[in-house]
Every structure is written in C-alpha cells, then in structure tokens.
Amino acid sequence: MIKNSLSLINQNSNDSDVLGVFETVNTELFQLLKSSQQTYKPFLVSSGGTTSRAAADKHLILDLRKNYQNISFDLDKKHVEIEAGVTMGELSSFLKKHQRSFPIGLSGKTGMGYILTGGISPLSKSRGLAIDQIIEIKGFWGNGKEFHLLRPNTKEESTSEWKALCGAAIFLGIITKVKLKTQPLRPLISWTANLTFSQLSECINQAESWPNSLSFQWICGEDIFAHAIGEVKDTGDESILINLLERLPFSRNRIINKFNDMNSLPNLSLGNNKNNNSHHSEVLGLLGPAWQESNSQVLKILKDLINKRPNKYCYVASQQLGGVTNLNDLDTSFIHRDAIWKPWINGAWEANDQTKRKRSLEWMKECWNNLEFICPGVHLAQIHPHLEWHEKELSSAFKNWLPKLREIKAIYDPSNVMPPLNN
Ligand SMILES: Cc1cc2nc3c(=O)[nH]c(=O)nc-3n(C[C@H](O)[C@H](O)[C@H](O)COP(=O)(O)OP(=O)(O)OC[C@H]3O[C@@H](n4cnc5c(N)ncnc54)[C@H](O)[C@@H]3O)c2cc1C
C-alpha cells in the first residue's frame, strides 16, 4: 500500500476517507485481499475515477491512473492497445494523430470503466458500443489468476467468459489492458440549443427517425439543453444532416457548428452544474425502446419529476442508441440491444447532509418507478452495491443472463473481491 489519499473527479469518491491506495496489481495486493476478513466490502477499483464507486470510506482502492498509461497503435491493423489508466479523451487525442477515432462517450474524462460498462457514444448508432470494439482483454480475475482473452470470430466460437467480460467485467476482475478496433476520423456536425418541454418532445420524435449517422442527447433540470451530433461521411452527407438539424425546434441559443473530433464538442451540461464541489450525487442509467406514441405521456411524467426535484442540481438526461447497437454479432452482457434511449437520473444533495441525501435518493427511485414502463432496462455505467436498489439494478441490467453471470463469478471471483452480483 503506498498512500492513503487520492484526488478523484467524482466528488463523493474524492471526499471519502479511504483505508489505503494501491497503484499496481501484484501479488501483495491479492495476498492482502485474500487475508481480508470482510471479503469484497473493503476493495474498489478506479480507472477514470468519475463514479461514486471509484473510492469510498474505509475501502482499499486500486487506482490505475498512474501506472497504466501505455497506449500503442498497430499501423497495419489500425488497432489501438490501451492500459487502464488512459482516459477516453487521451485515447481520442492519440488516435487523432493517426487520423483514426474511437466511439468515446460524452466526456473525455471517463476512463476504462466507460469501455467496460458498455460505452454508449453519440456515434454508437453507426459504430456500435465501446464493448463491440474490443479485440483483446487482459487482466486478473478476482481470484488473482491472470487472463488474456481474444475476441472470438463467430457466435459459435464465443465463450461465456468473453460474453461476461464484455459488459460485466467490473464484477469479475481487474482489467489492465484492452486492444480495440478504431475507425477513420471524420468531421462532426454539432447542433446545440435550449428547448421547452414541447420542443424537446418534438425533437425526440424527429430523432427517432433519423439516419444512423445522427444522434440526439438532452439534459433537463432547471433548463433544457440539447445536443445533436452527426458524423459527416461525405459532402452529400453534410447537407442531409444540416437539413435535418434545421428542422428541429428550439427556444434560444441554437448553434450549428462543425468539429474535428469528439474532444472538441461542447459538453452536455446545464450552466449550474459546472465545478460544483459542494454537492454529492448518484447516477442511475436506464434503457428502453423508442418512445413513439408514448412520447407526450413520457414528457408529461418527466416535467412532473423535474418540477418536484429536491435539489437544483438534480436532473434527468438522455442519450440515443439504435442503428448498429441493435445488432449483436457476438453475445455480450449488454443485453438491452433493442434500446433506443438511455435516460439517466442524476440525484444530487449537499455533501454530508444525510437527510437531503435520503430525499434525493427517494426522488431517483420515484423517477425510476415512473419511467420504468418505457425504460425497463438498466445500464450499469454506475454501480450501487452500497444502496438498497442494487439487487433490482442487477436484475434489470442482466435479466436472464444474471444466473449464469453469478455462476461465472463463483468460479473466477469466489471471495467476492470485486463488486457483488447480489445484495
Ligand atoms: C461526465 C460524464 C459523461 C459520461 N458520458 C457517458 C457516455 O456518453 N456514455 C456512457 O456509456 N457512459 C457515460 N458516462 C458514464 C461512465 O462511462 C461510466 O460511469 C464509467 O463506469 C466510468 O468509468 P471511469 O473509469 O471513469 O470511472 P471509475 O469510477 O474509475 O470506474 C467505474 C466503475 O468501473 C470499475 N472499474 C473501473 N476500472 C476498472 C478496471 N480497470 N477493472 C475493473 N473494474 C474497473 C470500478 O470499480 C467502478 O465501479 C459518463 C460519465 C461522466 C462522469
């Protein structure tokens, strides 16, 4: 163990009082974990450090940021290999030098957890999820044994272990390195604007019939801000995308712009959410099909929920999937392949105020209950083994695949060193 403090992006994690921090995966680490009487409870892994489970009070932390920074590019195959401390922004900048790109998410700050938990990008409708790009995966199972798995060529050749690692790896082991497919770097068209609820409803309606090269994301709190992102494959494409974007309604601040890469895009955030370190938060990601004729009903529910949010930093936002994310050439643990929207609920409260924390968590549950009819799935981009809804989030994320995942965990992580797959 080398230190007992760390500086993390997530405010809950950053403010936590940890037992100690490791920075290397080695036998000393596994011996210590083995000798621990409390099994999984005291140990957490952090790559990008952007979630509330990057660190927690009285936990041992494995912080991969410093010693897992390698990144290399195969000029022939156009594959990139990254270690677990590389952020998605760094990956994107590195690939730009080779005129290549990777479907990173809405923020360059996220780390390996983005890839391991599925990875929904604004480009996913045409590129697929981040897990769909994995060619090789290396690491240590929870039992301490090292592994190196290669992408199977066909569904028939695929193994349960591969399926489990693509989307549920964080429950099974410590991932140190992945090799990924990359794609050509292409210009992006970005449309941003502030909307009213009825304009948001109309935008969602239009976005549900867009081509795969265009996606829509929005955030709704004290204001509604939306961001459409399109990938320009050729000159003809650009005018088609701009035509579609010009049909979108907006109330103010509409900007249509062209960017070279994902790192240059504006953030999907509300003005009041920037640099807020006096608040803690939890995030719950949902998944569901197109809203279609339920659109106005969902918007009404959303408006009611936003109006009763207990803290001004609480919000609901969403990303769009579809296109090739609905295909599944190899089985993965991201089972909600029919999903078109990923709304996520952000519950915030003043740091260390337990009463307000409870109220915000209640509000999150109310949002979940009210939206579940249209978003029955869960995207475990953030896990909550410390909250009472963990069992429900697991079963909504993995459905019929959960029993088999538990069997795999019993083999490869029998002492529950990694986060639990039950309550
Ligand atoms: C600003 C912002 C924007 C986002 N945008 C998107 C988006 O567009 N699309 C999307 O899909 N998600 C998005 N997310 C969610 C984000 O990708 C997930 O929360 C992801 O898990 C974060 O990974 P991390 O490495 O940054 O965080 P961490 O907190 O370090 O890790 C997250 C979880 O993964 C586990 N973990 C991390 N690294 C490893 C490892 N090497 N081995 C084993 N377990 C590990 C940790 O135990 C932890 O539970 C966003 C999050 C933020 C904060």
Give a short overview.
The protein has twelve helices and 18 strands. With 423 residues, the chain is α+β, with helices and mostly antiparallel strands. The chain has four domains: 53 residues, no CATH class; 114 residues, Uridine Diphospho-n-acetylenolpyruvylglucosamine Reductase, domain 3; 77 residues, 2-Layer Sandwich (Alpha-Beta Plaits), CATH 3.30.70; 127 residues, Vanillyl-alcohol Oxidase, Chain A, domain 3 (3-Layer(aba) Sandwich), CATH 3.40.462.20.
Furnish the topology, listing elements before pairings.
Elements: H1 11-14, E1 20-22, H2 27-35, E2 43-46, E3 60-63, E4 71-74, E5 79-83, H3 88-96, E6 100-101, H4 112-116, H5 124-127, E7 134-141, E8 146-150, H6 160-168, E9 173-181, E10 183-184, E11 188-194, H7 197-207, E12 214-220, E13 224-231, H8 235-246, E14 252-259, E15 279-287, H9 295-307, E16 315-320, E17 341-350, H10 354-371, E18 377-379, H11 390-398, H12 402-412
Parallel strand pairs: 1-3, 2-3
Antiparallel strand pairs: 4-5, 5-9, 6-10, 7-8, 7-9, 11-13, 11-14, 12-13, 12-16, 15-17, 15-18, 16-17
Helix pairs in contact: 7-9, 9-10
The structure holds flavin-adenine dinucleotide.
Provide an overview of this structure.
By secondary structure, the protein is α+β, with helices and mostly antiparallel strands. The chain has four domains: 11-63, no CATH class; 71-184, Uridine Diphospho-n-acetylenolpyruvylglucosamine Reductase, domain 3 (2-Layer Sandwich), CATH 3.30.465; 188-264, Alpha-Beta Plaits (2-Layer Sandwich); 276-402, Vanillyl-alcohol Oxidase, Chain A, domain 3. It contains twelve helices and 18 strands. A hairpin with a 4-residue loop joins strand 7 and strand 8 (146-150). Helix 7 (197-207) runs antiparallel to helix 9 (295-307) and helix 9 runs antiparallel to helix 10. The longest helix is centred in the C-terminal third of the chain and has 18 residues, at 354-371. It is globular. The model has no long low-confidence stretch (mean pLDDT 94). Flavin-adenine dinucleotide binds at residues 44-51, 53-54, 64, 84, 105-107, 109-114, 116-120, 169-170, 174-175, 319, 381-383.
